What we know:
Number of helices: 5
Strand order of the largest sheet: 4-2-3-5-8
Number of strands: 8
Order of helices and strands: HEHEEHEHEEEHE
Strand content: 25-35%
Low-confidence stretches: none
Number of domains: 1
Largest sheet: 5 strands, mixed
CATH topology: YbaK protein
Structural class: alpha/beta
Radius of gyration: 14 Å
Amino acid sequence: MSKTNAARFLDSKKIAYELVSYTVDLEDLSAIHVANQLGQNVQQVFKTLVLRGDKSGIFIAIIPGDEELNLKLAAKVSGNKSATMIAVKEILGITGYIRGGCSPLGMKKQYPSYIHASCIDFSHIYISAGIRGTQIKINPHNLIQVAHLTVAELL
């Protein structure tokens, strides 16, 4: 398994993690599919969402894979009055990642990032490694620290 930008970022910070592969289904890029492929609790498989706030511009929300982001809460915690998901066609240009492979680590630019508070209920969670077919298994406290995430209520 080759190293991704996200994995190299963790290596540079000397953070422990594990790369875990799964079978990609281009018809189903959901975190629920990823959790099923990994045989893991979908509440531990977090998806990375890219949003645009009316005041702050781009920001990131990381939530459990089977949940829906509450846009009002996301806007509030990010200091915005409103927030919208960016268009799929914008993901690559903004983050350097494609849909289904967007990682909160190693993006083109460091954006304000928020992770749902439930992450700290687990000894480890899964996030995208930056490519479809690979996840990073990591301690959520280490992820919060190294990625400068704000823990927040997003659901």
